[in-house]
Each structure stands twice: as structure tokens, then as C-alpha cells.
Amino acid sequence: MAALIHGRVENVVVFTLPSLAPSINIVYGPGRASVHSPVPRWEVKPAWRRWAGEMGRYVKPLRIEADSLVRCDLWFFYPFYHGNGRLRTCDTHNMCKFVIDTIVKHQGWDDAVVKHGSWGSSDSENGRVAVRLTEVRR
Predict the structure, then answer these.
(1) Which DSSP category does 84 fall into?
(2) CATH homologous superfamily for 2-137?
(3) Which has the least CB within 10 A, 9, 51, 112, 116?
(4) Over the stretch 61-80, which tens digit does the pLDDT of each residue have?
(5) What pLDDT shows up at residue 4?
């Protein structure tokens, strides 16, 4: 994978988030109207906010320089099939954004620094997310 990174690899941290985020289908819900707009805005539901808060203690710190970019590789582990053999619906590609948002929130970065990365998944009974963050310098 190093050939895909344009720049000099500086620091790398690896950690595991011990659970999957709640279903992507329940991420957003209608919010409240504000003084500035009578139309309610969509907002992240409490289950997602709770999960993001709980995962903070598992996010290993990665100190990056001001001119650095970050590569974020994610690997999701969850059961691919229901007990009856039917394929389980789990939109891991949609979860990437929320996992990355959770990570950058706890790192204190602007999510714009995450410019590289990959994701994949493995059939597993134990739902979790393996994370590798790589600092990339010019």
C-alpha cells in the first residue's frame, strides 16, 4: 500500500474500535427548526452520538504536523449472513464517513486532512472496526 501514498510516511497508529456503529439506516433524523430557518434540519440521532462518544477511549492519539495529511485504512468485522443463510445488509462503505468523523473528532483534526485510505470487511461473529492511521508528509 505504501506505493499508493504520495509523500513520506511519518507516524502510524493501529487500534480497534470494539463495536460497529449503529445501523446506517438510523443515522439521521429530523431536527428542530431554528431562529434562522423555520425548516427543521436533519441531525445525527442520539444512538450515533453515544457510539461516537464511547469509541473515543479506544482512539489512539496520532500527533501530526500542520502540513501533514492522513491515510485512514478501515477493516470492518461482522457476520455477513443471517442464521437462515440470507446475506446481511451492512453498508460498510457508508459507515466509513461516520467512523472517520468519530476518529478525527477525538484526534482534534479537521476531517479535510484525511486524503487517502481504504476499507474492507471480513465475515466474523465479533463486530468491530480495525483502524490504521498513517501520517503522510510532503
Answers:
(1) T
(2) Holliday junction resolvase RusA (3.30.1330.70)
(3) 112
(4) 999 999 999 999 999 999 99
(5) 58
Distance CA 52, CA 58 (A): 10
User: What number of residues does the chain have?
Assistant: 138
CB 55 within 8 A of CB 126: no
Q: What are phi and psi of 30, to 5 degrees?
A: -65, 135
* C-alpha cell recorded at residue 104: 478525527
Record the cell numbers describing residue 87, joined without a space.
446475506
Q: How far apart are CA 6 and CA 4, in angstroms?
A: 6
Grid cell, residue 21, equals 456503529
Q: How far is CA 65 from the centre of its chain?
A: 21
Residue with cell 445525527: 44
62 or 24, greater pLDDT: 62
Give tens-digit pLDDT for 27-74.
655 556 556 666 666 677 777 888 999 999 999 999 999 999 999 999
All structural domains of the chain with their residue ranges: 2-137
Phi, psi angle pair for 58, to nearest 5°: -95, -10
